[in-house]
Each structure stands twice: as C-alpha cells, then as structure tokens.
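step: validate -> pass
step: tokenize input -> pass
step: predict -> running
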Amino acid sequence: MQSRHVSVTRIGGLENMAVRTEEVADPGPGEVLVRVAAAGVSYGDLLLRLGVIPFGPKPPFTPGFDIAGEVERIGPGVTEFAVGQPVAALLKVGGYAERVVLPASRLVALPATVDMVEAAAVALNYFIAHQMLHRIAKVDAGQRILVHGASGGVGIAFLQLAQLAGIECYGTASSAKREIVTAYGGIPIDYRTEDFVRVIRSLPGGSVAAVFDPIGGAHFNRSSKVLGRGGIMVAYGQSAALVDNRPNMLIGARGMLGGIFLPKIVPNGRRTTFYNAWSLEKSEPTAYRSDLAEVMRLLADRKITPPVAKTMPLDRAADAQLLLEQGSVRGKVVLTTH
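step: predict -> pass
step: emit ->
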C-alpha cells in the first residue's frame, strides 16, 4: 500500500523538505496501520529540521509528533482496536504522513465526538502541559505558577489546564498577545516592558510554586529566582536556540541537556528539572496512555478548546513550518491528508 509522507532530506532550510511516496508494509505482530487524518505542526519540528536538538534523527526523516486518524489494518495479536476505530498517538518522528505503522501500545482510542483536527491540535501541547503540571511539578489548587510563552500552543494549554485545576497562573507574552493570556484565565506579563522577576516578587508571598520555561539558555537562571520554598522550575524547550531563525548551537546543546544553563538549586528545597516525555515514559510506563487518554476526554467534554490557527494539506508542510518560523499564527497549525 502506498503512502505519501514529508521527508527532511538534509539538515537546514525549508528547501530541504520534500513530499515522497513509498510503500507501507503491513502491520506486524502487535502493530496497527493508521490512516492519518491530521498531524500537528510543532516548533520542535523546526528544531529537528535545523539540527538544533541534540541526538535528533538523521536525514532523511519524516517530522511530526502528534497524529489523529483511524485504524486501517491490524497486525496479528492486536485485540484492543478495530478497523475504522478513531485513534490518536504521539511519535518521536513520522507524523507528516498519510499512513503510519505503530505498536498498538502507542495508540489511544478517541471518543466518537472528537474532531480529528482538534485531536491532533491537543495531542502534544496539552499532553506535555498536563504531565508537567500534574506529574512533574504536582501543583495544587490555590497555588501560583509562572508560564513563559503563555500565548503559544503549550502556553495556552497550561493556562486552560491551570484554570481547570484552580491554579493561579501568570504568563509572559508580548503586549500584542495580552488578550490571549487573559482570555484563557491567565494574568499577563509583558516580557518586553516588564521584568517578570520584579512582577512576581511584588506579589503577596513574592514567589511561585512552579515555573515552566521553554526558552532555555541563561533565561533558566532568571526563572529560578522567583521560586518559593519547595518550588520547581521545569525546563522543557529551547526557543533561544534559534536567533532570527538561525541555529544557536551553543544554546541548543546546553539548553537541551541542562549543562551550565540549568541551575541546580538546593536552598529552601527548590529544584529544577528538564522535562522529556520519552524519559518520563521510561520511569512511568503507564503514564503515556493514561495522560493522553485524559487529554482526549477533556477535549470530548469541551473542558479544553485548542485554538486551531490553520489547517493545510500535507504537501504544504514547508509552508506550515514557515508560518511557525514567522510567528504569524495564533494557535496550532494542523496538516490534513484528505
């Protein structure tokens, strides 16, 4: 069976993305062939293409972390899923494709009411925000947090999930995107004109229980300064690894791996950690399916509403990534296959 997919043929610019058609093998024992309906486009896809993320895949590879679709074929021994059943999954690579073969253990069933595009829009962003908020930081109702990049995809997920949990959330964003933060229950801090350290320290208590920082580099050090006793800073990205859309490899390598830019805080029980979904899955094997299913339940119940900025056909994947590079969209960009 043939399938189109987007291939990154070499590390570098958008010109290195091409649509290819190849045969897809039948699913083997314990595997499922998924007909992809929608695939999310993420900032991490750009970083992989530019070679910023250490130990990323070597070209040629197909980007894409989050997919939604339906079961098309089932391999021997799979009894949990049926042909035609809607499913979602998170992948390390491979989402920009019409068809993917995956272990059945990577899939979660989608409620019948869930839209495929919305499922792809929440699969990655809300999953990692849910894990960082509840499994890593373990923030309780009534506590206060700080979210950097609060108007972005993961930032909005944090805002919505924090509001659901009764958590007070401050979020950094530009003044142009202030209304996005407030719309989702957050308290905005203009990162261009306000010093978030001063803002937080001026509040009653002068600190937060947790900071979620996707920026990287020296920014991690500043974030750690607003933690209260027993607080945690969760680093989960490295947007500082791109300067004017060009790789800053020093930040990429050190920011991703911790290195000198991820401080180890001891006083008052404060701590830092770098979140990685794949590492967490190794230590908590049941967390992946449990948390992804929970996110999809929240979507089905309309307790979360992912902002979908744009849908684009698979063969325009390079254009979709360009929109993210330009910062010209508000919400998730999703590729569709039909």
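step: describe -> The mean pLDDT is 91.
step: cleanup -> pass
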